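Bench notes, bay 3.
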Amino acid sequence: MWQDYSNALFSALGLSGLAFAIGKLVVATGERMIEKRHGTGNVRETITRRAKLETGLEARKGERAAQIKEADGAVQDMLRRRSVLERQLKDAQQTSEMLVRQIGEELAGTPCYLAMVVNKYVGNAAFQQKQHAFIDSSWSQPQMIEVWARSMAEARAEIERRYPPAFGYVVTRLQDMDKPVAKAG
């Protein structure tokens, strides 16, 4: 009797194993037929490749976010610095002292020339209604410039190099600090 039960048990286990193997074979064959019919061969490889791409893109997205945050911080810093500089410029313009620009270096034996420069485009009537796009409105009034140069001709050349006549800058007066006024042409 025990032998009948054990034979039945082994037969049942054998048949269930055989049924499992046949089912697995049917599923694998069905998958291949579906892949061939719908042209989805190598789907697993594609999924693996795309998963790697997705991981790489996520990492790149994180790097880019950090770069954007850093650039935003730099822009904010520049805006703060600009605000401080504009405030300082406004304070300097409101003080009773006149702003003096300098060209060249003060060297022993090098004479200093005083020039008055104005921009004709800023002072032009067409621009009186609105502010010039590139040139500060203070240039509508003569601006004082100290030029350290060996000669008056060299001083004029340095002024024109820094403030080109092509951009509307005009030297209205140029004089040696130790000599009387010489009108500029």
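Next record in the batch:
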Amino acid sequence: MNRYQVIMTQYDPKYAEETVKMWRDSKEQAIGQKEIHSFADHVYFLNNILPEQFQINLALIDEKVVGMIAFNQTEISQLYIHIDYQGMGIGQTLLNKVKAKSSGNLTLYTFEVNEKAQRFYEKNGFKIIGRGHENEENLPDIQYEWISK
């Protein structure tokens, strides 16, 4: 049983710096390379670019950002969980919420080096539909799709 009270909430810019720190730490651990954008640019992206196409939800424990997901009805753009809180069901909770709000079909990309993410998505019914998408990190990635039953 989870001993933490996880609160799911809409993104609020007051969490910008904490969210970006968590996102960068999680991504760097997952792909084994440093974030290429400056911290300030990353905050700007979170507050000004990402919300143009995606809704952003946070997972909080005691007002601490432990996860984030950016999504719309057909796509998940970002899903990151704090490195100290992975494997506790937070990503599952965020993903389930997005699946319920989706059109019944979701696509996403994950890096080929991120095997933990691949296992997570495949366990949740996502199937590989493409490989080798171009990205800023110059890493091979995998495109997944989930279709509601």
